[in-house]
From TrEMBL, chain A:
GO molecular function: transmembrane transporter activity
Organism for this UniProt entry: Kitasatospora camelliae
CDD domains: TM_PBP1_transp_TpRbsC_like
Protein name (database record): ABC transporter permease
Residues annotated as transmembrane: 21-43, 55-74, 81-103, 109-132, 205-231, 262-284, 296-322, 334-351, 358-377, 383-401
Automatic annotation (TrEMBL), chain B:
Domain of life according to the entry: Bacteria
Annotated source species: Kitasatospora camelliae
InterPro entries with a match to the protein in the record: ABC_transp_permease
Keywords, comma-separated and alphabetical: Cell membrane, Membrane, Transmembrane, Transmembrane helix
Membrane-spanning parts: 21-45, 120-144, 156-176, 209-227, 256-274, 280-300, 307-324, 336-355
Protein name: ABC transporter permease
Chief location category: membrane
Length: 421, 384
């Protein structure tokens, strides 16, 4: 995350600010959120939300979304909308699992990226060279790549039934290493199990970060940070972004716009491929038809949620990953989350009151009251509601913040060389 | 197959010259040929006899039962494509067809199972229910776009996921599904719709032809009429071409966006009804998913024109229906059909672009030649 992250709302509904979030403010908000989680955990006796298992599950769910979103970020910063991320992810899951089984999972990871990059190349060819509408091309890719993968596996997996392949499932690959910091992990687990106020919650979160952490998660985090530096701190990145803002001006300054767009879209495909390979090599050990489950689209949403910035993208992916992991875990945790949301809405209301925004303050308080009532009257939250939460939140955030979101200026526009306006 | 054809000939021949028709047909033909070549290569690489596969598909496609199935499926695809195309005509990318049709179908199934009126009231009631639900759901995206500037692409993707959640929330025993588990299977589904909801169908030698085919044709005719013969259609196309120009000529763009989105959603609501009122009679988890995305592909292939999408719906339906025979006759994977559909969609957009450039170049050459001839003539006059 960077200081350049523009004004954003905290997922749980913490105070929204007009000014830029600076490091101290971010840290304060994180501390406040921690305190809230700890207090609710102590009051209800349910520490599930800050348990290390929950944290690592959320992290695991966030990674494919973040990588798909990063793919979208690269492509859209160069001015090419990439709806085909989903198809490129499928290429990643397929190539990753397949090569992961045939050779080894490390090569599988690279193969997944290569498969996604091929999808990106196709998208670049269609959109940049032939100048076809970006969304049309993306829809075609989403149709074509899963088709090819399903076709190939129908033919070849038959020969590998003995190795555990099924009609639409690849044989399983070996697992990639996981990182557990020995002393730290068990120590933190001890502290977590004591359920001390705040201390145990922090220990739970930290424990989730150092126990059974897949190397791919570390790689993904590194790629996210590296992308920020490459795109915002190098000449290459400046030129790439200029293609998404004003390609004609970039061309007049001697930037080979086609070349940069090609690089960006191929990189975009590679990131989406990595997201797919994570699903088929880390989250599961095999490829299955339809295992991406629309995560490419969610990645795109996370990127828009994050205002086309890596830091915001990471936050959006975290939010989606957190709620995505909630559905797999104890329903009680989600019920406790209602209380947290209610308190956060009340706090937001107070903050608005302090800023003399009486209408929004009333709305926040009313929403908080409603959620609190919901918490009091029910014992659990229905699963479909949990699944829908991130989408609803994204819609609400987009509706509230869209005027502040700023996509690259020439995003989605068809650019032809030498056609200055 | 036969009904949209004469209309196509009349309207095209009346307005365009032969060369433009040829150029217009070149792109889809080129795309289908190219995707056939790609599939032949793919089949050959994987050690299958490509021409045998085409033979199997062709045999089934020309048999009467295959044709009836193709027409039935094309009916569904046509409605789906019309829903997507209506938005496209105004540059609105309604990816939410998927969620809209699921919700519309579910509510229609529920109403159909609860209410039992005479057919002539019951069937319109169900159609209107589905259209209302689909239209309302789509208009959320329209409202968000107009008042909050949220791209409809992203909001409809979110709405698709939320629609799935709503289906999961409502389709439980005690709410939309009967309490005692309907039918022999333990899949959760609504109770069957009442007898009076059943739409008429035609028994043919090849099987039951769905009466919805005529509704689909009616939708096509209404679509064509609205676009080309009404003020609304003109405004719609004008807004799609250039928003600022439309605004300047007095079109209320905001209202157009919301209306177009709602109409697109209302059409989307109808997608599930042929299946509901003629085939399965209930809504459950076994409902075919992905119709929304197929509709988008079919609409793109048919260039968003009511006649074009009739042909592309028939093509996609033929590929699907004939493809289902592939595993039965000669051990070909059915998935080759998906590859074919995907390549057709990509090839056709590329082909259209190439044909457009070629046409532009020819036009330039023509004009250039005429100008040169004029200049030469003028020179002659001067010198004479």
């Amino acid at each position: 995350m960077s200081t350049a992250t523009t004004a954003r709302q905290k997922p749980a509904g913490a105070p929204a600010k007009k000014s830029k979030l600076t490091w101290p403010v971010v840290l304060l908000l994180i501390a406040g959120a921690l305190l809230l989680f700890a207090a609710v955990g102590a009051a209800t006796g349910n520490h599930g939300l800050t348990a290390s298992g929950q944290v690592s599950a959320a992290l695991g769910s966030a990674v494919p979304i973040a990588m798909a979103g990063l793919g979208g970020l690269w492509s859209e910063r160069a001015g090419v909308v990439n709806i085909g991320l989903e198809g490129m992810m499928v290429a990643g899951t397929f190539c990753g699992a397949w090569v992961g089984y045939l050779v080894n999972p490390w090569v599988g990871l690279l193969a997944g990226m290569a498969g996604g990059a091929l999808g990106g190349l196709l998208h670049a060819l269609v959109t940049v060279t032939f100048g076809v509408d970006h969304i049309v091309s993306g829809v075609g890719i989403n149709l074509l790549i899963p088709g090819i993968c399903a076709y190939v596996n129908r033919i070849y997996y038959k020969d590998y039934v003995a190795a555990g392949a099924g009609a639409n499932q690849s044989p399983s690959a070996e697992s990639l290493p996981q990182i557990t910091i020995p002393g730290l992990s068990t120590g933190l687990r001890d502290i977590e199990n004591h359920h001390w106020f705040l201390v145990s919650d922090v220990a739970g979160i930290l424990g989730g970060l150092v126990t059974n952490l897949s190397v791919v998660i570390v790689i993904a985090a590194a790629l996210l940070v590296a992308s920020y530096f490459v795109l915002w701190r190098t000449v290459f990145g400046l030129r790439l972004r200029s293609c998404g803002e004003n390609p004609t001006a970039a061309e007049s300054l001697g930037v080979n716009v086609y070349k940069y767009k090609y690089i960006a879209v191929i990189a975009s495909g590679a990131f989406a491929g990595l997201a797919g390979a994570y699903l088929s090599l880390v989250a599961a050990h095999f490829y299955k038809d339809g295992m991406t489950q629309g995560r490419g689209f969610i990645g795109l949403a996370a990127m828009i949620f994050g205002n086309w910035m890596p830091g915001g993208l990471a936050m959006g992916a975290g939010l989606f990953g957190f709620t995505d992991s909630l559905q797999l875990r104890d329903a009680d945790n989600v019920h406790v989350l209602l209380l947290i949301v209610a308190i956060a809405m009340f706090l937001l209301g107070l903050w608005q009151l302090y800023r003399r925004k009486f209408t929004t303050a009333t709305i926040s308080a009313a929403v908080g009251g409603g959620v609190a009532l919901w918490y009091a009257l029910t014992d659990s939250v229905q699963r479909p509601l949990i699944v829908a939460t991130p989408y609803v939140i994204t819609l609400v955030v987009l509706a509230l913040a869209s005027q502040r979101l700023r996509p690259p200026k020439a995003d989605g526009q068809i650019y032809r060389k030498g056609q200055a306006k | 197959m036969t009904s949209p054809k004469p209309a196509a000939k009349r309207s095209l021949a009346g307005r365009f010259d032969a060369e433009r028709i040829l150029l217009g047909l070149a792109a889809p033909v080129l795309a289908v040929l190219l995707s056939a070549v790609i599939c032949i290569i793919l089949l050959a690489i994987s050690g299958k006899d490509p021409f045998g596969a085409f033979q199997v598909m062709w045999d089934y496609g020309t048999a009467s039962d295959g044709q009836v199935l193709t027409l039935n499926r094309a009916t569904v695809y046509y409605i789906a494509a019309a829903a997507a195309a209506f938005g496209f005509r105004m540059n609105l990318f309604n990816i939410g067809v998927e969620g809209q049709y699921k919700l519309g179908m579910m509510f229609a199934a529920y109403v159909g199972s609860q209410v039992d009126l005479p057919s002539f009231i019951q069937i319109p009631l169900l159609l209107v229910t589905a259209m209302m639900v689909g239209g309302l759901w789509a208009s959320i995206a329209g409202l968000l776009k107009v008042y909050r500037g949220v791209s409809e692409v992203i909001s409809t993707i979110m709405l698709n996921a939320i629609a799935t959640a709503i289906v999961g929330l409502l389709l439980v025993p005690g709410i939309f599904a009967p309490k005692t588990g309907g039918g022999s299977s333990n899949a959760i589904q609504t109770a069957p719709v009442s007898e009076s909801s059943h739409f008429f169908s035609i028994e043919t030698a090849g099987g039951t032809l769905w009466g919805f085919l005529f509704l689909a044709i009616a939708i096509g005719v209404a679509f064509q009429f609205t676009l080309n013969r009404t003020r609304f259609g003109f405004d719609l196309r004008a807004t799609g071409r250039s928003e600022s120009a439309a605004k300047a000529s007095g079109v209320n763009v905001k209202r157009m966006v919301i209306t177009a989105m709602a109409v697109s959603g209302a059409l989307a609501g109808l997608i599930g009804l042929p299946d509901l009122l003629q085939n399965s009679y209930y809504f459950g988890q076994s409902v075919q998913p992905g119709l929304g995305f197929i509709g988008i592909s079919v609409a793109l292939l048919g260039r968003n024109s009511p006649i074009g999408i009739a042909f592309s719906a028939l093509l996609f339906a033929f590929l699907d229906v004939a493809g289902s025979r592939l595993p039965l006759r000669g051990d070909y994977p059915q998935e080759i059909v998906l590859v074919m559909q995907g390549t057709i969609v990509i090839c056709v957009v590329v082909a259209y672009e190439l044909v457009r450039r070629y046409g532009l170049k020819r036009q330039q050459q023509k004009v250039g030649a005429e100008l040169a001839a004029q200049a030469a003539a003028a020179k002659k006059e001067v010198s004479a």
